[in-house]
Amino acid sequence: MTLTVRQFPCLSDNYGFLIRDEATGLVAAVDTPDAEAVLADLEASGWGRLDLILNTHWHADHTGGNERLQAETGCEIAGPEEVRRAAPLDHVLVDGEAVRLGETTFDVVLSPGHTLGHVVYHAAEDGLAFVGDVIFALGCGRLFEGTPQQMWDSLNRIAAWPEATTLYCAHEYTASNARFALSLPDADEALKAHAEAIFAARERGEASVPTTVGIERRFNPFLRARDAADFAERRALKDGFKG
């Protein structure tokens, strides 16, 4: 594995990610929730540079630091066309394209649902992906722009990756997601034990991110749906859930 990942909290419940290709020393930020937090972690890393920003989608809690970070580091910014609705963007990335950070290659996978242009970055050789707001630990993103069918298809594209694939999702929503999963009729003893472990970890102040494809296949209530219609019902229930 040639990629080092640094994860740090931003804003109220976002995570920021800095990644370094160890073969070349090139550094990227995946999304920019808060420029100050990104710069602070960049200084703490000792990496001394920021070469690239990879945006997953256009929302401000993922693009808000683009302008300042580019001004202060001279980095390039790449992402889907929709990023231009909110922030600077130098290179438009499309589905099926490969983007490189030194010797690390990310496949760009269009994953509509949360927004229509949302992409995820899958480094298959490194066994990891940055999935933005498509899939969360025990959850998935709200459907602000896309349809249930689009999100269902996006989730299942991710679920088809090897079980050991590490998923870096962009928010710490897991405890709430777990409470929702436990409210559903198909909650089983294994899910209850998994949820209790999450609650205990959060009480200790530990992050619940990243997760893996295997864990989400087993426990994520949206991947446990029978089909797109069942998924849509679950997503509607979650939108109104107060747990």
From TrEMBL:
Zn(2+) 2 binds at D61, H62, D133, H171. It comes from Brevundimonas diminuta. Keywords: Hydrolase, Metal-binding, Zinc. PROSITE patterns: BETA_LACTAMASE_B_1. It is an enzyme of class 3 (hydrolase). Its EC number is 3.1.2.6. Pfam families: HAGH_C, Lactamase_B. This is Hydroxyacylglutathione hydrolase. Binds 2 Zn(2+) ions per subunit. Residues 13-171 form the Metallo-beta-lactamase domain. Zn(2+) 1 binds at H57, H59, H114, D133. PANTHER family: HYDROXYACYLGLUTATHIONE HYDROLASE, HYDROXYACYLGLUTATHIONE HYDROLASE GLOB. GO terms for molecular function: beta-lactamase activity; hydroxyacylglutathione hydrolase activity; zinc ion binding. GO terms for biological process: antibiotic catabolic process; methylglyoxal catabolic process to D-lactate via S-lactoyl-glutathione. Pathway: Secondary metabolite metabolism; methylglyoxal degradation; (R)-lactate from methylglyoxal: step 2/2. It catalyses: an S-(2-hydroxyacyl)glutathione + H2O = a 2-hydroxy carboxylate + glutathione + H(+). Belongs to the metallo-beta-lactamase superfamily. Glyoxalase II family. HAMAP family: Glyoxalase_2. Monomer.
